[in-house]
Amino acid sequence: MKKAVIFDMDGVLIQSEILYQQRRAAFFSEHNLPLDDDFQHKVIGSNPKDMFTLLFPDSTEKRNLYLIKYQLFKEEFTIDYKQILTEDVEEVLKWLKDHQFKIALASSGEYSILLDILAKTDLTPYFNVVVSGADMKHSKPAPDVYLEAIKQLGYHPDDCVAIEDSTHGINAAVAAGIDCLALKPTEFDIDQRLATKIILSLNDIPSWLSS
Predict the structure, then answer these.
(1) Rounded Cα gap, residues 185 and 64, in angstroms
(2) Which of 128, 117, 124, 195 is nearest to 155 (CA)?
Protein backbone atom coordinates (compact mmCIF):
# COMPACT_ATOMS: atom_id res chain seq x y z
CA MET A 1 0.00 0.00 0.00
CA LYS A 2 1.26 3.46 -0.90
CA LYS A 3 2.03 5.87 1.91
CA ALA A 4 2.95 9.08 0.03
CA VAL A 5 2.03 10.98 -3.11
CA ILE A 6 4.63 13.21 -4.75
CA PHE A 7 3.25 15.88 -7.07
CA ASP A 8 4.87 17.87 -9.84
CA MET A 9 3.78 21.51 -10.00
CA ASP A 10 3.35 22.72 -13.59
CA GLY A 11 0.81 20.76 -15.60
CA VAL A 12 -0.30 18.87 -12.49
CA LEU A 13 -1.24 21.23 -9.65
CA ILE A 14 -1.53 24.23 -11.96
CA GLN A 15 -2.21 24.43 -15.70
CA SER A 16 0.61 26.81 -16.44
CA GLU A 17 2.40 25.54 -19.53
CA ILE A 18 0.48 27.62 -22.10
CA LEU A 19 1.15 30.78 -20.07
CA TYR A 20 4.82 29.80 -19.70
CA GLN A 21 5.07 29.27 -23.44
CA GLN A 22 3.56 32.71 -24.06
CA ARG A 23 5.96 34.28 -21.55
CA ARG A 24 8.90 32.48 -23.14
CA ALA A 25 7.87 33.62 -26.62
CA ALA A 26 7.56 37.25 -25.50
CA PHE A 27 11.01 37.20 -23.88
CA PHE A 28 12.73 35.45 -26.77
CA SER A 29 11.14 37.86 -29.25
CA GLU A 30 12.19 40.90 -27.20
CA HIS A 31 15.81 39.69 -27.19
CA ASN A 32 15.87 38.32 -30.76
CA LEU A 33 16.56 34.77 -29.57
CA PRO A 34 15.62 31.76 -31.71
CA LEU A 35 12.49 29.92 -30.60
CA ASP A 36 10.48 27.24 -32.37
CA ASP A 37 7.87 24.65 -31.41
CA ASP A 38 10.52 21.96 -30.99
CA PHE A 39 12.42 24.05 -28.42
CA GLN A 40 9.19 24.93 -26.58
CA HIS A 41 8.39 21.22 -26.38
CA LYS A 42 11.86 20.29 -25.15
CA VAL A 43 11.69 22.64 -22.16
CA ILE A 44 8.30 21.47 -20.87
CA GLY A 45 8.91 20.39 -17.29
CA SER A 46 12.24 22.20 -17.20
CA ASN A 47 13.42 25.37 -15.43
CA PRO A 48 15.09 28.59 -16.67
CA LYS A 49 18.61 27.42 -15.75
CA ASP A 50 18.21 24.24 -17.79
CA MET A 51 16.47 26.15 -20.59
CA PHE A 52 19.38 28.53 -21.12
CA THR A 53 21.86 25.66 -20.80
CA LEU A 54 20.05 24.04 -23.71
CA LEU A 55 20.05 27.31 -25.65
CA PHE A 56 23.69 28.23 -24.93
CA PRO A 57 25.49 24.93 -24.25
CA ASP A 58 28.96 26.41 -24.89
CA SER A 59 28.67 29.80 -23.16
CA THR A 60 28.35 30.11 -19.40
CA GLU A 61 28.51 33.89 -19.76
CA LYS A 62 25.46 34.02 -22.05
CA ARG A 63 23.56 31.53 -19.89
CA ASN A 64 24.07 33.64 -16.77
CA LEU A 65 23.32 36.92 -18.55
CA TYR A 66 20.02 35.77 -20.02
CA LEU A 67 19.04 33.97 -16.84
CA ILE A 68 19.24 37.27 -14.95
CA LYS A 69 17.32 39.07 -17.69
CA TYR A 70 14.64 36.38 -17.70
CA GLN A 71 14.20 36.50 -13.93
CA LEU A 72 13.58 40.25 -14.16
CA PHE A 73 11.20 39.73 -17.09
CA LYS A 74 9.21 37.14 -15.14
CA GLU A 75 8.58 39.65 -12.35
CA GLU A 76 6.73 41.87 -14.85
CA PHE A 77 4.80 38.96 -16.40
CA THR A 78 2.49 38.24 -13.48
CA ILE A 79 0.30 35.14 -13.28
CA ASP A 80 -2.81 34.65 -11.16
CA TYR A 81 -2.10 31.10 -10.04
CA LYS A 82 -5.48 30.63 -8.40
CA GLN A 83 -7.10 31.04 -11.80
CA ILE A 84 -5.07 28.18 -13.28
CA LEU A 85 -5.40 25.61 -10.50
CA THR A 86 -6.09 22.18 -11.93
CA GLU A 87 -9.71 21.11 -11.49
CA ASP A 88 -10.42 19.26 -8.22
CA VAL A 89 -6.85 19.72 -6.92
CA GLU A 90 -7.86 20.84 -3.42
CA GLU A 91 -10.50 18.13 -3.08
CA VAL A 92 -7.93 15.46 -3.98
CA LEU A 93 -5.31 16.89 -1.60
CA LYS A 94 -7.92 16.94 1.18
CA TRP A 95 -8.82 13.31 0.46
CA LEU A 96 -5.15 12.33 0.68
CA LYS A 97 -4.76 14.13 4.01
CA ASP A 98 -7.95 12.60 5.38
CA HIS A 99 -6.63 9.15 4.44
CA GLN A 100 -3.26 9.69 6.17
CA PHE A 101 -1.11 9.98 3.03
CA LYS A 102 2.00 12.12 3.21
CA ILE A 103 2.15 14.68 0.38
CA ALA A 104 5.25 16.08 -1.28
CA LEU A 105 6.04 18.48 -4.10
CA ALA A 106 9.00 17.66 -6.37
CA SER A 107 9.26 20.22 -9.14
CA SER A 108 11.96 21.59 -11.43
CA GLY A 109 10.96 25.13 -10.40
CA GLU A 110 13.00 27.25 -8.02
CA TYR A 111 12.25 26.64 -4.33
CA SER A 112 11.15 30.22 -3.56
CA ILE A 113 8.76 30.18 -6.53
CA LEU A 114 7.27 26.85 -5.50
CA LEU A 115 6.58 28.17 -1.99
CA ASP A 116 5.10 31.37 -3.46
CA ILE A 117 2.72 29.43 -5.71
CA LEU A 118 1.60 27.16 -2.86
CA ALA A 119 0.97 30.22 -0.67
CA LYS A 120 -0.95 32.11 -3.35
CA THR A 121 -3.16 29.09 -4.05
CA ASP A 122 -3.71 28.28 -0.34
CA LEU A 123 -2.23 24.80 -0.79
CA THR A 124 0.73 25.13 1.59
CA PRO A 125 -0.92 23.29 4.54
CA TYR A 126 -1.33 20.12 2.50
CA PHE A 127 2.37 19.58 1.81
CA ASN A 128 4.76 17.80 4.17
CA VAL A 129 7.78 18.19 1.89
CA VAL A 130 8.78 20.60 -0.90
CA VAL A 131 11.85 19.89 -3.03
CA SER A 132 13.18 21.95 -5.96
CA GLY A 133 15.02 20.39 -8.87
CA ALA A 134 16.86 23.70 -9.25
CA ASP A 135 18.66 22.88 -5.99
CA MET A 136 19.76 19.45 -7.17
CA LYS A 137 22.99 18.63 -8.98
CA HIS A 138 20.86 17.27 -11.82
CA SER A 139 17.26 18.31 -12.51
CA LYS A 140 14.60 16.21 -14.25
CA PRO A 141 14.83 13.86 -16.16
CA ALA A 142 17.47 12.81 -13.61
CA PRO A 143 15.88 11.21 -10.52
CA ASP A 144 17.60 13.50 -7.96
CA VAL A 145 14.56 15.58 -7.01
CA TYR A 146 12.43 12.47 -6.43
CA LEU A 147 15.15 10.68 -4.48
CA GLU A 148 15.47 13.73 -2.22
CA ALA A 149 11.70 13.94 -1.73
CA ILE A 150 11.56 10.23 -0.82
CA LYS A 151 14.43 10.72 1.62
CA GLN A 152 12.73 13.68 3.30
CA LEU A 153 9.46 11.77 3.53
CA GLY A 154 11.31 8.94 5.25
CA TYR A 155 9.92 6.28 2.96
CA HIS A 156 11.07 3.73 0.38
CA PRO A 157 10.43 4.26 -3.37
CA ASP A 158 7.86 1.43 -3.29
CA ASP A 159 5.85 3.44 -0.74
CA CYS A 160 5.44 6.41 -3.08
CA VAL A 161 3.68 7.37 -6.29
CA ALA A 162 4.50 10.39 -8.46
CA ILE A 163 1.93 12.52 -10.26
CA GLU A 164 3.49 13.94 -13.42
CA ASP A 165 2.68 15.21 -16.87
CA SER A 166 5.93 15.87 -18.76
CA THR A 167 8.25 13.33 -20.35
CA HIS A 168 11.14 14.74 -18.25
CA GLY A 169 9.14 14.29 -15.07
CA ILE A 170 7.94 10.78 -15.89
CA ASN A 171 11.49 9.70 -16.73
CA ALA A 172 12.71 11.17 -13.42
CA ALA A 173 10.09 9.27 -11.43
CA VAL A 174 10.78 6.00 -13.25
CA ALA A 175 14.54 6.44 -12.73
CA ALA A 176 13.87 6.94 -8.99
CA GLY A 177 12.09 3.60 -8.92
CA ILE A 178 8.59 4.85 -8.11
CA ASP A 179 5.24 4.36 -9.79
CA CYS A 180 4.07 7.32 -11.84
CA LEU A 181 0.57 8.46 -12.78
CA ALA A 182 0.68 10.80 -15.77
CA LEU A 183 -2.02 13.46 -16.04
CA LYS A 184 -2.90 13.72 -19.72
CA PRO A 185 -2.74 17.34 -20.95
CA THR A 186 -5.60 18.78 -22.96
CA GLU A 187 -3.69 21.50 -24.84
CA PHE A 188 -0.86 19.52 -26.47
CA ASP A 189 0.62 16.04 -26.89
CA ILE A 190 3.32 14.69 -24.56
CA ASP A 191 4.98 11.29 -24.67
CA GLN A 192 3.73 9.62 -21.48
CA ARG A 193 4.31 6.00 -22.49
CA LEU A 194 6.68 5.22 -19.60
CA ALA A 195 4.11 6.14 -16.96
CA THR A 196 2.58 3.40 -14.82
CA LYS A 197 -0.84 4.72 -15.83
CA ILE A 198 -2.18 7.72 -17.76
CA ILE A 199 -5.00 9.49 -15.95
CA LEU A 200 -7.49 12.00 -17.33
CA SER A 201 -8.22 13.76 -14.05
CA LEU A 202 -6.70 14.21 -10.60
CA ASN A 203 -9.88 12.55 -9.37
CA ASP A 204 -8.45 9.28 -10.71
CA ILE A 205 -5.77 9.31 -7.98
CA PRO A 206 -7.97 8.20 -5.03
CA SER A 207 -9.44 5.31 -7.02
CA TRP A 208 -5.98 4.14 -8.13
CA LEU A 209 -4.66 4.30 -4.57
CA SER A 210 -7.70 2.40 -3.30
CA SER A 211 -7.50 -0.37 -5.89
Answers:
(1) 32
(2) 128
- Going by pLDDT thresholds of 50, 70 and 90, the confidence category of residue 184 is very high
Strands (E), 101-148: 102-107, 129-132
Q: What percent of the chain has pLDDT over 70?
A: 100
Instruction: Look at strands 160-164 and 129-132 and give their pairing.
Output: unpaired
Q: Is 158 a catalytic residue?
A: no
Q: Can you give the pTM of this predicted structure? A: 0.83
- In 3D space, the residue among 211, 107, 120 whose CA is nearest the CA of residue 162 turns out to be 107
Which of 195, 183, 193, 205 minimizes the C-alpha distance to 86? 183
Catalytic residue among 8, 144, 165, 204: 8
> Known catalytic residue: 80?
no
CA distance 104 to 122: 15
Kindly name the residue from 10, 144, 165, 204 that is annotated as catalytic. 10
Helix axes 60-76, 48-55, angle to 10 degrees: 140
Predicted pLDDT at 167:
93
- Tell me the HSE value of 56 on the side-chain side, using a 13 A CA sphere: 13
